[in-house]
Amino acid sequence: MKKKFRVTAAAAAAAMLLSASPVQAFAAGTQATTETLRTELRTAWKNLSSTVSMQKYHMTIDELSDVYYDLLYTEGDWFYVGSGFNYSTNPDGTVAGIVLSYNYSKSEIPAMIRSFNQKITEIGGMVNSNWSDAEKVLFLHDYLAEHCQYDLTYVACDAYAAMIGGTAICQGYALAMCVLCRSLDIPCYAITSDEINHMWNVVQVDGKWYQVDVTFDDSAPDLIGHADHTYVLRSDAAMMADPEHKADDWNYFTEGQTISCDSERFADAFWVNSVDTIQPLSDGSWVFGKLLPNDQIMYSDQICSTISVCSPDGTVTPLRTIQQSWTSPTGGSYITCYVCSQVYGDKIYYHTDQEIRCMALDGSNDQLVYTLTSAEKALGSIFGILIDGNGLLTYQIQSVPSFESDHTVANLTFHTLQLSAAPVTTTTPTATSSTSTTKTTTITTTTKPVTTTATTVLTT
Fold this sequence. Notes:
This protein has 460 residues and is an alpha+beta fold. The protein is built from ten helices and 23 strands. Helix 5 (133-147) runs antiparallel to helix 7 and helix 6 crosses helix 7. It is elongated.
């Protein structure tokens, strides 16, 4: 991703001042030059410096840009550093100095860095050290898809926005993935394409490189509890065959490494065709819901989701198949089944269009938890659920699964139920839930999950 820069009088003056002191010359383009400049840029960014002298590097603007952006897009920690800078040149055309820019005021950046690092530690604490690197990548992919939504204002573009603000464009998703993978010692870099105006990732698992695209696996409009897995640990060939990624200008920010994603090891992994966020169990198993691909659906009774568990040895055991189609406001049926599942305590919770249900971890003892009230049914159907660590279950109601023409979602409301960690009983609890007074909510103005109603306490 090449950026265009401009020379200003202020930048030129600053660079001339910087060049007044003696410097040690380097041969442009050497590894020593690159590493020294990377170190100097890191120091300048860390100290929130305004200028950096370039006299000793003898670099053209293109050479400088390659180093600058490779560092910025490799180490997403520099979320506060501006992607543009001013520069001045020497008579021979090399860069004399640069004037740095920052995305936030210098007074607020230290506190933002502390919050950012705390979030990295918090997310890392959710990762089981016994998981394979592939499972760790899967978890981070699903975490970002669940906790970040696409910014339709196209403003939020850094890892801080994705991880703290909960909204970002593709660049924010990709840089957050870089930060989180690297915090777990998993090599991860960014890929960009001007042709498709997009950024995504490559990660290394067991010595092989794979592509990952969290942005395109995150539903839009956002559906809580859902994450596609079309672009998790894919090969170059698989991604190039995909219309969303086919381009002639993939640009790798990989610190000069030549990377090839030629492994198809995960082409048939258990998460393929899953639209749930994959749920880990304490024994190393994973709970997930899988759909029958749309191109295989011939009849309405094939619109279903199968909730299964994958054991540590890779054995997949189906637990329950939910045959359910979602009805559109015009009376037709959508071809996609929008069931998603969540694990809490010793139960798996899932939803249909009108109900929230639960079952034991082995699929037994299926029972009703909650049915939508008449007022809620008037708003639409359940399109997702999410349970936090305290047992607060949020369910998302809306009329249709897609955006309106103005990027709003008709009748989008969020409601909550408070679950109990008590063992599953044989009786069906009853509850009522108040509804939101908001009929239409703009999805870009909220972070997920959003609760807009009073909480109903259940004893399931």
